Amino acid sequence: MTTWTSDELNRIASSDELEMAPLRRDGTRRTPVPIWVVGDGDALYIRSFRGTDGGWWRTATARHEAQIRSGGVSKDVTLVEVADPEVNDRIDTAYRTKYGRFGDSYVNPLIAARSTTLRLVPR
């Protein structure tokens, strides 16, 4: 499995937003959308603010491939669904810590959207 370099991990995890362009079933890229990203150890995670109704999330989980841009890093990634409750607890904390300044109306939907947690694995 490919891993992030320390520089890539730090640049992406410290950025407020990530541009996500998931691949459609036919292999074309969807228009990039800005989403929030958090780091946990040597991994990066994203969630859908709109839960499973989020358009980018539905596209992303159909093929589990995307291109991301954040912090000056552009990378093709594999999207791995995360169901582990312990990992999701840490991701909840990471979202609260990183984005709490925006208020509960932004953070709480991401906490509620645990079922949409995706790990970004570089390709």
Write up this protein:
- The protein is of the alpha+beta class.
- It has helices spanning 6-14, 55-63, 85-99, 104-112; strands at residues 18-22, 33-35, 37-40, 43-46, 65-70, 73-81, 118-122.
- The chain has a single domain (6-122), classed as Pnp Oxidase, Chain A (Roll).
- The protein is built from 4 helices and 7 strands, in the order αββββαββααβ.
- It has a 7-stranded antiparallel sheet.
- The longest helix has 15 residues, at 85-99.
- The protein is globular, with a radius of gyration of 13 Å.
- The model has no long low-confidence stretch (mean pLDDT 95).
- It holds the Pfam family DUF2255.
- InterPro entries: Split_barrel_FMN-bd, UCP028498.
- It comes from Streptomyces longisporus.
